[in-house]
Design brief:
Largest sheet of chain A: 5 strands, mixed
Helix content of chain A: under 10%
Keywords (chain B): Dioxygenase, Oxidoreductase
Enzyme class (chain B): oxidoreductase
Distance between the termini of chain A: 50 Å
Strand content of chain B: 25-35%
Oligomer: heterodimer
Protein name (chain B): Protocatechuate 3,4-dioxygenase subunit alpha
GO molecular function (chain B): protocatechuate 3,4-dioxygenase activity
Distance between the termini of chain B: 13 Å
Largest interface: A-B, 86 and 82 residues
Radius of gyration of chain A: 19 Å
Number of helices of chain A: 2
Shape of chain B: globular
Radius of gyration of chain B: 17 Å
Pfam families (chain B): Dioxygenase_C
Order of helices and strands of chain A: HEEEEEEEEEEHEEE
């Protein structure tokens, strides 16, 4: 396949969004079949997802506890002997279910590029510097109010080969567990005002701008700390729990 | 439901230094009493292996109960937590060491993540055996596709291949509240 230009990809993105706008349907989740993201072409199911009522094990989620996660893992800037380069940030927020109930004591994992847009991954050969003081992996457990908090470095944008001159907006990957297995999700948090977001087929695979906006953190000056870091707030809503209230006592 | 769920996104290609961890695939030590291999390949629409997929399993105990034990990330080899994570290798192959789940018509709940896959996929790997035909859920799946949800018994383990697209495409699931393409609620 001939490699597309950004103009070509942007036209595809625009056409899909226009078609969606006229449909009157809600698609809060990304389209699995989203051709502007070329890697999805052979990896999206072609049949409709089959409806299932959660049963047995799916009504429960794995448990994580203090032996799974060291509190230091929530600070990505202290994992090496020196301070990583870049803008130090705090990212915090709450994990809730669809009814607004806090998701307590569940695992939140993040991973990201460094300030120069480089991942510590062998296949990432983007010629930007590796930061010996930054790996880009963090974990924490949510608190009783469903809150999480990471100290990290603002990641840089980086190029990829989806199309000519494709650059991903800066983002942090999040992996989340709910109280039911069916709430499991992986997503990406983006930064406000990023000029690359409108051009990015992964972010744009969520066709409604109101839903896309749910992935953008807010700058929060009350999270910012004097002479130390800037602060961002980002809340996550998982789908609803299907377990009966009676069965939730242990959760 | 009152809140709109946050959309998912792909894990991308570079999760390998973050999500997999040494004991992730070993819910029980390989070779320990009762240990079985649960493994298979992840294939794309061209039948090619997907070398950058991540598979998670979540299953009941051999007695059929949901497991309420912590310690999946730092395993005590004597404690079964029921949850595991494995990345596919260059041939698109994943392997877990686990115990056979118990209960009536038991299954392992499986989650699939991959570059190119914009949101996670859920499926079920039923243990082969009598009684599956009576299962109300399986009975609702069209006959030609039902077997994609049933693991294959082999010496020492269970094989469960996952086809993301094309002939033999695995049946993937959505649960209530996750239905794509529903009418937008008023007032949003």
């Amino acid at each position: 396949m001939q490699i597309a230009t950004q103009a070509g990809i942007s036209a595809e993105i625009g056409a899909i969004e226009s078609a969606h706008r006229g449909s009157g349907l809600e698609h809060p989740q990304p389209s699995l079949d989203y051709a502007p993201y070329r890697s999805s072409l052979l990896r999206h199911p072609t049949k409709d997802l089959h409806h299932a009522d959660p049963e047995r094990i799916e009504l429960w989620a794995p448990c994580f506890g203090p032996q799974d996660v060291d509190p230091l893992e929530a600070d990505l800037t202290v994992q090496h002997s020196g301070q990583p380069l870049g803008e130090r940030i705090v990212v915090t927020g709450r994990i809730m279910d669809g009814e607004g109930r806090p998701v307590r004591n569940q695992l939140v994992e993040i991973w990201q590029a460094n300030a120069s847009g480089r991942y510590i991954h062998q296949r990432d050969q983007h010629p930007a510097p590796i930061d010996p003081n930054f790996t880009g992996v963090g974990r924490c457990l949510t608190g009783d109010d469903g809150s999480y908090r990471f100290v990290t470095i603002r990641p840089g944008p980086y190029p990829w080969r989806n199309h000519r001159n494709a650059w991903r907006p800066a983002h942090i990957h999040f992996s989340l567990f709910g109280t039911d297995f069916t709430q499991r999700m992986v997503t990406q948090m983006y930064f406000p005002g990023d000029p690359l977001s409108a051009l990015d087929p992964i972010y744009q695979s969520i066709t409604d701008p109101r839903d896309r906006a749910l992935l953008v953190a807010a700058y929060d000056h009350d999270v910012t700390l004097p002479e130390w870091c800037t602060g961002y707030r980002w809340d996550v809503v998982l789908t609803g729990s299907h377990r009966s209230p009676f069965g939730q006592e242990e959760a | 439901m009152t809140l709109v769920p946050t959309p998912g996104q792909t894990v991308g290609p570079f999760y390998g230094f973050a999500l997999p961890y040494p004991d992730g695939p070993y819910l029980v030590p390989p070779g320990s009493p009762g240990a079985v291999r649960f493994h298979g390949r992840v294939l794309d629409g061209a039948g090619q292996p997907v070398p950058d997929a991540l598979i998670e399993i979540w299953q009941p105990s051999p007695r059929g109960d949901p497991v309420r034990e912590t310690g999946s990330l730092h395993r005590d080899p004597f404690v079964f937590t029921g949850w595991g994570r494995a990345a596919t290798d260059n041939a698109g192959h994943y392997t877990f060491s686990t115990l056979r789940p118990g209960g009536e018509r038991p299954f392992l709940a499986v989650t699939v993540f991959a570059r190119g896959l914009l949101d996670r996929l859920f499926t079920r790997a039923y243990l082969p055996g009598p009684g599956l035909a009576d299962d109300p859920f399986l009975a609702g799946v069209e006959p030609g596709r039902r077997e994609t949800l049933i693991a294959v018994d082999e010496p020492g383990g269970l094989r469960f291949d996952i086809r993301l697209q094309g002939p033999g495409e695995t049946v993937f699931l959505h649960f209530p509240g996750q239905r794509p393409g529903t009418a937008r609620p008023a007032g949003r």
